[in-house]
Amino acid sequence: MHLNRKSPDSCPALVLNADFRPLSYFPLSLWSWQDSLKAVFLDRVDVVAEYENTVRSPSFEMRLPSVIALKRYINHARAPAFTRFNVFLRDSFSCQYCGDMNREILTFDHVTPRSKGGRTTWGNIVAACSPCNLKKGGRSPKDARMQPFQKPYRPNMYELNEKGRAFPPNYLHESWHDYLYWDTELEP
Asked: Torsions phi, psi of 135, nearest 5?
């Protein structure tokens, strides 16, 4: 296939669930143009909006989808994976000891240190900036006189999606506005 206008790599498709809500807000559920076209041809999605850009082969031409909706609903009731990113998202990308929001210095902190039997689980990990993590060291919050702002817990997918809405991406295509809930003044 060959392209008219700009590169298709600059044309991701916003992926909506069958209820027309994004699959996720942070990271925003986007598929590459190749994945979105494949899903169209496999009849797994409906095209809701298109870019002006087209791709073509010798016998076929198609506008690139900018918004697609899954034909089958994906239930978000499953528990989210325990990942560094999801812990930081749960904690709103801020240190749970001092409130610093510098993402470049965020680390995991074991509330109950591993040296004292603490495990690497949702209920024992919080986001902490490097200085606070070093200050707390291998001590308990009580011994270090550093209590986290919120007790660590396992969030659900709905909660992580809601938290993700507070962090709009750098790029929002105009065709996505009806499906996203960020203030449009935040766009570049």
From this structure: -65, -45
pLDDT tens-digit series, residues 92-132: 999 999 999 888 899 999 999 999 999 999 999 999 999 99
Direct distance between the N- and C-terminal alpha carbons of the chain, in angstroms, rounded to an integer: 31
Q: What is the pLDDT of residue 185?
A: 44
Distance CA 132, CA 135 (A): 5
pTM comes to 0.64
Question: Does 81 score more than 80 pLDDT?
Answer: yes
CA distance 158 to 143: 35
Specify whether the CB–CB gap between 18 and 72 falls below 8 A. Answer: yes
Q: Which whole-number Å values give the CA distances from 27 to 101, 110, 111, 145, in the listed order?
A: 18, 25, 27, 34
